[in-house]
Design brief:
It is built from 8 helices and 7 strands, in the order E-H-E-H-E-H-E-H-E-H-E-H-H-H-E. By secondary structure, it is α/β, with parallel strands linked by helices.
């Protein structure tokens, strides 16, 4: 569900004409919306996900070049997928993974390890496994949260991973050039995953954000996707992180 009161900017039709965009974690939320906007801009898309039924629906909607069902944190499955990608591809976005905010005393080590796998090892493995297939000037786009700028109870894992992805992005941009590498740091985004995590509290959260954010609306998946496509099409951008949070960080004391 989107709560935007005004349309978000999207990439004009044709800017990705003839290009191939791969979205790991592209069956819902930000990943699916990025794939939609890439298709609207003329690209062919390849999408992955863990849920076969959801991925099938996404593939049909997108008229995808192909889809692949696997757990992106499984190194063997990920390696097989990356090896089987066409050569060359133009852009690859890693949108898989869920946030894990939990106080230290309540932390489940298995879930914590999975968070590291999803948010740090996965981007690193993708870069290592696919960079030889990405054309010069193409992009790797990663997603994290705005937690690298904050500290507090329950933020230990996600803020650490966000900070790590900032460093990884900057270093990869040098190491894999002329392939470009960029990071999107998102605040609260109104997606099905957010609704699932917050349950009955989701509408209260939306109302709070509408009332307090400088943009006076909730950030949606389409806002993040528009930024992702801008990073793909603006060839001057590499090695940096770009916040999309509606000004939420400006309100923190």
């Amino acid at each position: 569900m989107t709560t935007a009161s005004t349309p978000s900017p999207t990439t004009p039709s044709g800017q990705l004409l003839g290009q191939t965009v791969v979205v790991i974690g592209g069956s819902s939320g930000i990943g699916l919306e990025t794939a939609r906007q890439a298709r609207a801009a003329g690209a062919g898309v390849i999408v992955t996900g863990r849920d076969p039924a959801r991925l099938k629906r996404a593939g049909l909607e997108l008229d995808a070049l192909s889809t692949a069902v696997f757990d992106a944190t499984d190194p063997a499955a990920l390696g097989d997928f990356l090896e089987g990608l066409p050569n060359p591809i133009d852009h690859i976005m890693v949108a898989a993974g869920a946030a894990y905010y939990v106080p230290l005393a309540e932390m489940e080590l298995g879930r914590a390890r999975r968070a590291f796998d999803e948010h740090l090892w996965l981007p690193l493995q993708v870069a290592r496994g696919v960079v030889h297939k990405v054309r010069a000037g193409g992009t790797l786009v990663f997603i994290t949260g705005t937690g690298a700028n904050h500290s507090g109870i329950g933020l230990s894992i996600m803020s650490t991973l966000a900070a790590g992805l900032h460093a990884l992005t900057a270093n990869l941009a040098v190491e894999v050039a002329p392939v470009r590498v960029n990071l999107i740091a998102a605040g609260f985004v109104d997606t099905p995953l957010s609704a699932e995590l917050l349950g009955d509290e989701i509408e209260e959260r939306r109302e709070q954000l509408r009332a307090t954010l400088p943009i006076r609306r909730v950030v949606g998946a389409e806002d993040v996707a528009a930024l992702a496509l801008h990073l793909m099409t603006n060839t001057a951008l590499t090695g940096a992180a770009y916040d999309v949070d509606g000004g939420q960080q400006l309100l923190r004391g």
